[in-house]
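Fig. S4 source data, part A: sequence.
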Amino acid sequence: IFCGIHPYRWLHRNYQQVLALLFAVEEINRDPHLLPNISLGFHLYNTYHSDEKTLESSLRWLSGQDQPIPNYRVTSALSVQMGTILDLYRFPQISYGPFDAILSDKIQFPSLYQMAPKDTSLHQGVVHLMVYFEWNWIGLVVSDDMRGEKFLWEIRGEMVKKGVCVSFTEKIPVSERTQMESHKTFMPRIMTSSGKVIVVHGDTDSLMILRHSQVPIFQIEKVWIATSHWDITMRPLYSQGFAFHGALTFSYLTREIPGFKTFLKTVTPTKYPHDALLRGFWLSAFRCPNQPEYLEQELCSPNASLDTLPLGSFDMTMSGFSYTIYNTVYAVAWALHEISRRKSEKRSMVNEEYLVPYSWQLHSFLKKTQFTNNAGDQVFVDENRSSEAQYAIMNYVFFPNETDALVKVGQFLPKAQFSQDFAICEDAIVWGWWDAKVPSAVCSESCCPGFKKTPLEGQPTCCFDCSPCPEGEISSQKDVEHCTKCPEDEYPNKQREHCLPKVVTFLNVKESLGMTLAFMAVFFSLLTALVLGVFVKFQDTPIVKANNRTLSYTLLISLIFCFLCSLLFIGHPTTTTCLLQQTVFAVVFTMAVSSVLAKTIIVVLAFKGIRPGSRIRMFMDPRMSVYVVLICSGLQVIFCGIWLGTYPPFPEADTQSQYGHIILKCNEGSAFAFYCVLGYMALLALGSFSVAFLARNLPDTFNEAKFITFSMLVFCSVWITFLPTYQSTKGKAMVAVEIFSILASSAVLLGCIFIPKCYVILLKPERNTQRQIRNQ
């Protein structure tokens, strides 16, 4: 049970396992109900951390002689070679060491039982710790044996599930000869690796290389995570070598056995004078002179007690192995108790020797043994019913005064409910000499919100670059692999961390631009109405009569509606306003342009020499000008009707055109119909301009042909400029461009054709007479 490197070097903490055995035996022997009238005894054999010595001890026990029979030695795992030898004699073996699935093979090891709890969830607890502290770049150090390979395979699989990567893997040779050859380079290779968090798995025997490996003389920021099988405190003091200060270790979570600490405080060589092993332990632990007379005369630490030893030498808290040994002794006692009880029932005792069973008789009773120990835990010898191990997460702290301690900072309960299986107190952890905050163990620093991870070719998934999210996408969390698009009614902020609601925008009459355009529309419509009033009042004057009063009235009324129709483009778009915007604009503008066309035709025909009776003379009829307006306007009405009947305009919310805005506008519906309507008006305007241009030099009294030519030139220029400007603008500016074009072209017609006439009518009435016209 007691373990050491060789007979002259002690690992003092392991002696607690011997005392746990002694405590259990004495407790059982004092119990009047368990094995009454029978006292248990025991033999201790040292394994010396050597497979050969373990086998030798087993053979020495079996042969009962100093010289073991047979006289040869072999090498294999401790429990394996003991189980193989003992099974030859049907001796049951109960292993208190770490649970090993290999030893559960009852075909190969029918006489071997394991009392340790199962470690099938240990790797999950270790990875849970990594995920909690957001570590993803981890080094793994395992023993180079089957148990190490199994743990390596399990933890790698769990790390892949949780997105944690392995920075390096080191396998510790279990052969003592190989350890001595590699210990000089083993630790420096680990310390210079890129991984800042290192998981170490193996038992105290296989990890002896870590006790004596050479390490750098300077401190390097490393966090060690040790599993339950390795006693991390069994290292030389810091002054003698590297200490695992700040390490976290998973220890078996066990209940306290009543009376065990009190028992430890009373243990002295004087109490057990015949225990040579205790005498040797005492001399080494308390650094006494290696002379027996000091011990006998109690001159070496006369007031010594085990609770005064430092943690590296002895721990007063029962370890997981000691707890298992305690249960193992009780399991054997209960099996022997059941055997004696059954034999007592069958026949009366002839002598007490009859009650001593043969070794092979223990098997049928051991595998059925179950009991509740003094700590209140249910204990089963049957491995199929043994419990899953629970773990206390301990923090190893090494103080400047060369004392150390293990502080519980958390726990892992595999079978507990979700969110209750893992708990840790981050503030209670001492991380190391370098800093008090949680160390960072990542291959690449986290990508901040607004960025996404870009994998590096040939590198693990934990190694990446950070690139900004594309336009229109965000990432609100760290380390996202893909950015997400904002909803249609939202847009990313500048940092692309979250979405902001888009501003709803349209040409509002309450804004300065909308208010200005609306004012201009009303102003020009009133001005046009005023001009119409002037023409009506002075309708019998020569200047009004000379230019066809009906056409003048029609043109002025059309211009009034042209100015007013621009108001349909201002304000919140609705289904009604969208249907009326382009159609009303198209019809009234067509009426205005066709009126100008009719005026131009009459001017040309008035000065063209026409023979009496010619068919062309019929176009001089005043009603003919009305027909021209009606026909031209009627065709436009038909075009608009087809447009409304097939694919009419409709209101829409444009979320793409302008960043951060939702533009409420009217969609033309059929773009083809929209440009057909504009094209038809352009054709009429071009016709009016062409006819007026040909008649510009005719001897017109009031120069109306020249005014029409100039007005149509500006009119066409406005609308030619409108098309590219309209296509290149977005949002309410697009609507404003169309309104401005409507107002400008209408104002040109009003100003060029009617303002000169109003000037003569109102300011030069002497020129507005029949005599003046004849003189001219």
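Fig. S4 source data, part B ends here. The two ends are 140 Å apart (CA to CA).
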